[in-house]
Amino acid sequence: MKNFVLGVGIFLSSFLFSNEQESFELLYEKIETLEEEIRELRNLLEENSILVDRSLELQQQRYLDLDGRILELSKISSESKSSISSEQEILVQTEERDLFKSALILFEESRFAEALEVFSNLIISFPEGSFTADAYFWSGELFLAQDMLEDAKLSFQSVVDQFPEHTRTPDSLFKLGEIFRFEGNKIMSEEFYDKVLDSYPQSGAAQLAKKSKENLKEESNLVD
Question: Distance between CA 99 and CA 115 in Å, rounded?
Fold first, then answer.
């Protein structure tokens, strides 16, 4: 009898140990699978972040190149009108253009505080000038470069509110979407992306907004 009880005890112990071992193995496999999924998620997020950063970098360089060409065209236009325009008007146009050009040069040289000061001076001196919307836009970029997100929002929003027909408006809407995305505000970021896509579907900003919206959706699905 004692031998029978002992045998049963050994059998049960062996059975329980076996089940426990299997449970640990299953748990370990689940942990490994979860860790692999987390690694894949991190890699995807890093890739998306690099792609977005690169797109923004190229976009910013295009902005600088475009503004440089605009300045040259503005200079030619001013010179051609010199014979029929008043001297005072020519001086004002030249002063505004020179301010904008000097601010862009400072921006390219990463002298952000100085560039911001010149852009602010241009906005105050020429509130309805030819380069005011551009000055607000570049001020937003400068604030972004210094992680001053709230100030950047105000600058980009100023372009949207005060210059709805300006070429910088779709770009400013996209930038607002990017800031809210960076802050983790998915609802607001999508709202601004949609504004670009609905109101300016043919713009370069719309293409970037579409890509950012797709990335945002992918990130949300992976996190869920």
Answer: 10
Averaged pLDDT, 63-71: 54
Question: What is the second-level CATH architecture of the domain 58-223?
Answer: Alpha Horseshoe (1.25)
**CB-CB contact of 222 with 41 (8 Å):** yes
Q: What is d(CA 171, CA 164) in angstroms, rounded to the nearest whole number?
A: 11
Least confident of 65-79, 104-118, 166-180: 65-79
Listed in sequence order, the residues at least 6 apart from 124 whose beta carbon sits closer than 8 Å to its beta carbon are none
In the prediction, which pLDDT does 202 show? Answer: 93
pTM comes to: 0.65
106-135 as b/e: b if 16+ CB within 10 A: bbeeeeeebbbebbeebbeebeebebbbbb
Show the tokens assigned to 130. Answer: 């030819």
Among residues 154, 148, 78, 165, which one has the least CA distance to residue 123?
154
Please check whether residue 103 is in contact with residue 118, taking contact to mean a CB–CB distance below 8 angstroms.
Answer: yes
The ranges assigned to domains in the chain are 58-223
Q: Is residue 161 within 8 Å of 180, Cβ to Cβ?
A: no
Please give the mean pLDDT across all residues of the chain.
76
- Reported confidence tier of residue 67, pLDDT bands at 50, 70, 90: low
